[in-house]
Amino acid sequence: MNQKTNFIMLVLIIFLAGISPAQEKSKNFPVLKGPYLGQKPPGMTPEIFAPGIISTGYCEVCAAFSPDGKELFFGLWEESPFIVILFTKEINNQWTPPQVAPFSGQYCDLKFNISPEGDKLLFTSKRPFNASKKPSESWHIWMVEKIKTGWGKPINPGSIINSKWGEMYPSISENGNLYYFSDHGPKEGGCDIYLSRFIKNDYTKPEKLGISINTEYNEGDPFIAPDESYILFCCRDRKDGSGANDLYISFKKKNGIWTKAKNMGKNINSSANDTCPSVSPDGKYLFFTSNRKIHKSYSQTSMKYKRILRNLSDPGNGYCDIYWVDAKIIDELKPKELKYGD
Known about the structure:
Elements (H helix, E strand, L loop, with lengths): L2 H15 L3 H6 L20 E2 L11 E6 L5 E8 L3 E10 L2 E2 L3 E2 L8 E6 L5 E6 L14 E8 L2 E2 L15 E6 L5 E6 L7 E6 L1 E2 L2 E2 L3 E2 L9 E7 L5 E7 L8 E7 L10 E2 L10 E6 L5 E6 L30 E6 L1 H6 L2 H4 L3
Antiparallel strand pairs: 1-23, 2-3, 3-4, 4-5, 4-6, 7-8, 8-9, 9-10, 11-12, 12-13, 13-16, 14-15, 17-18, 18-19, 19-20, 21-22, 22-23
């Protein structure tokens, strides 16, 4: 193993060792059965997802389930920064302990989403475009495809998508259209959300979404509904915001025009960073990442690794957890004219 792989294994060991007091006694991963790791479904108020199991008091980001609900991917962020993608899956009606994804662990791999069909996982990485080169200084989009034995090797979708500016948080619709955010320089006014259409088995030149979604502020982390009926994203510093990054939603009309993005409200957003939205494949739950609350397991973390969680008093820094909430909130935010026809 190289140095970075050793580091990742160390972090993962720490992650698993600190899962909960019960596990510390038994040294075993708990027996988890049923949908969503056997967790009690949330209501209309966001709750930490799988506390002490997935959200542990370190820094967990993103949550992406496979279409059959039997595989979960999530990220673990160390302050270096070094980010690794982990996964757990349901085998013989029991969830396995988290492991490093076979395509991750060597380079910084960050925000990701799974295609609606489950045959592709798109993620952000600083891995080199060529194996003989140094890691990239910018984040770019990569893709792995499902194969019989698991997942294939990461593929770079090419210069049509990946530019010198860097691209992040890819999300793909049922028809293959790719949404992501990028900072194309100061003339573009910061980070904006882009769309690259999938036509004739190839991606087209990216186009920036309109002013209903993009503003002079920084928009990021887009999640597109499989049928492209709505888009979730985060933004900070807007006048209707409640703090750092807030979650927003926009709906597509029958004429293809997006409605003016709406803040998802105080019940969803906090004064901290609320980012990385995604909706479970069955449409039942909204997942997102937030650093709104110091997890109780923080007090159980050894002093050696509490440095990972430094600056907790600053809502823009420090640890984060994965939250989930009933996705009915999306329908509640839908404009009346779209609920009952354009």
